[in-house]
Amino acid sequence: MRAIEAALGISKTEVSASINRSIASGIATKDRKTGRPKPNRRGLREFIVHGLKFVFPAVPGAMQRGLPTAFAAPILRESLHSAGTLLSVWPYAHGKEMGQSIEPLFKSVPEAAEKDERLYAYLALIDAIRLGNQREAKLAADLLAQRLG
Asked: Please, which pLDDT band fits residue 77 given cuts at 50, 70 and 90?
């Protein structure tokens, strides 16, 4: 719990509650041998691709400085250009890009993404699914499926 707290900037209480919700919903399961939670990759992918945009809709906001996400993030920047000309960014005081703000899934996302390139890629793909039209969301979902295995 402490490692997750430090890496993501989320309190131990929030981490514990999230794990319990994930197990209750089937997005995670408990390992039979160790009893430790582990992700249900298929269930998680299904939720991200088909449900996340309804639970956590991405609503573009005002222009702000921040960390690029979705189609502006490094993982998708070369693969796909969004229909619009504006970059999507998570508002972040230390960000170097100017773009249309997208509220992250959690307030500490920009800091956590800046520390962990792999986490950044996953979160940017998730935002591309939340923001994109059908073609763009499918590309992001395919890349996510490849990474989740």
From this structure: confident
